[in-house]
Specification:
- By secondary structure, this protein is an all-alpha fold.
- It has one domain (36-184): dinb family like domain (Four Helix Bundle (Hemerythrin (Met), subunit A)).
- The protein contains five helices and no strands.
- Helix 2 (79-97) runs antiparallel to helix 3.
- The longest helix is centred in the N-terminal third of the chain and has 60 residues, at 3-62.
């Protein structure tokens, strides 16, 4: 065996040995990173949810009661239905995105969520439900155990960053919808400049 071949074999063996050791080291480092990362993602998600809550409730309060039945077209959610859709997300989907639970008496979400949109329609009742559902959601999000949110977790069976981005993206979409609805009925979002 030539000196060059011997060196190549040595380098190849060393690379295999290092390669075999790296996954274990990376896995350990990844486990440590995931716990810190999950806590950070949860913290940022909760802060974003706080902002969404403030803006959605401000819009709900700014829109006149007689406009709550307004809808942009037949078959599209009305203002009250869009707000109650957010209520359902705060009761069920947002808490579950961080492995939280709906209220004990919530019932089956497949029937309860659509029923909320159709049965609670007055401004006072909608605003009260927004505040009640947010209080539940906020408690569940802040109580979630970040160390249990590493890897894929129940019930979403996804990672904490995917769950947070998915839920936040959906609620931001509803905020945009509600801004468009408010402007359509002549209401400027309270936080925007004229």
């Amino acid at each position: 065996m030539s000196h060059k071949s011997y060196r190549r074999s040595y380098v190849f063996a060393a690379a295999l040995t290092i390669g075999a050791l790296l996954p274990a080291r990376t896995s350990y480092a990844q486990d440590v990173f995931d716990a810190k990362s999950a806590a950070h993602v949860r913290q940022e998600f909760v802060a974003d949810m706080d902002t969404l809550h403030v803006k959605i409730v401000a819009l709900a309060k700014a829109i006149p009661a007689d406009k709550y039945g307004w809808r942009p077209a037949p078959g599209v959610r009305s203002i009250s239905e869009a707000l109650m859709h957010v209520v359902g997300e705060w009761y069920f989907w947002a808490p579950s995105s961080m492995a939280g639970k709906p209220p004990a008496n919530f019932g089956d979400p497949k029937t309860q969520l659509p029923a909320l949109e159709k049965t609670v329609t007055t401004k006072d009742a909608v605003v009260a439900e927004l505040e009640k559902s947010w209080a539940h959601c906020n408690t569940q999000l802040r109580a979630s155990d970040a160390s249990a949110l590493t890897g894929k977790y129940k019930p979403w069976n996804t990672t904490v960053d995917a769950a947070a981005f998915g839920m936040a993206g959906d609620l931001h979409e509803h905020l945009g919808q509600l801004i468009a609805y408010a402007r359509s009925v002549g209401v400027r979002p309270p936080w925007s400049k004229p």
